[in-house]
Amino acid sequence: MKIIIPMAGIGKRMRPHTLTIPKPLIPLAGKPIVERIINILIESLDREIDEIAFVIGDFSEEIQQRVADLGNKFNIKTSIYRQSSPLGTAHAVLAAEPSLKGEVIVAFADTLFFSQFNLKNIDADGIIWTCEVPNPKDYGVVKLDDDGCVTEFFEKPTNFISNKAIIGLYYFRNAEILKKSLFKLIENDQKVNGEYQLTDALQYMIENGYKIKAQNVDEWLDCGNKNATLIAHKRILERYPDESKVNESVKCKNAIIVPPCYIEEDVILENSIVGPFVSIGKDCIISHSIITNSIIQNNVKLSNVNIDNSMIGKYVDYNDSYDELNIGDYSEMNK
Predict the structure, then answer these.
(1) pTM score, whole prediction
(2) Distance of CA 185 to the CA centre of its chain
(3) What is the pLDDT of residues 173-198, one digit of tens each?
(4) Cα separation of 104 and 127, whole Å?
(5) The dihedral of CA 146, 148, 150, 153: what is its sign?
(6) Torsion sign, CA atoms 82, 87, 93, 97
(7) I want to staple 168 with a disulfide (CB 3.0 to 4.6 A). Which of 71, 86, 111, 173 is the partner?
């Protein structure tokens, strides 16, 4: 089985952090979002993964290498494709055309999920994973028949259709069928707001007699914006207590660490309280501060802050006091 991970988007809702790094590479407790997606799939699927294909945008060589290293980390064949223009989810998947063969999982790189995926004895040509939500008008949803097969897709419906939100995770038993629908979509130039949508290609499959079923995941964590990402980060630390780690090189001087926290090497904590649900990257200095429920990346200096629900990028030097911060890389702000 192959995993295709489209991750070419520019991540506008996650700015300023995505001005210097793609959203899927933002770390949650020390691991990039996309690495966590791969981990979850490898652990949860009842299939062996023989290839991971990433669809990237106009990324630097350094970022491309970081993406390539992810596949190598799992000792799985890695392919990297480029989406030439931001023309939608269907266009992004088709960019990985050479890998659209046999059984394929398509997993978009801004969503985390927890479930056991049993693909044995599946009587369908595809699966779309969903999550029941209280506010379906804010999501793309599916309409099902009595057998649990998808009949139609609706994007942010004003009238109630169903509460089964599409989470961005799909299975195809034969990706060649999907490929034909993707080509048909583009040949017909069927766009929504200037983009080719994957759900429209799936609608072609359904109209041609192919069966796509919906399955619910146990839990879905969106990483689309700062607040959602911090919720995902908190759930990671809650769900995987073994990942709450404080590196042995961390120096505490009159400081308290309230678990769960993830703190990397060569961090100095002085006269501070850190945690719960805090990640701190390497080579940071935190002094005279109280920090909860936050992600702090590498080489950050913070003093005299009292913050919660905050994200702070790399190489930030900040000396002030606010309840909540959202600061990108290479920023300096002092009183």
Answers:
(1) 0.89
(2) 26
(3) 999 999 999 999 999 999 888 889 99
(4) 11
(5) positive
(6) negative
(7) 111
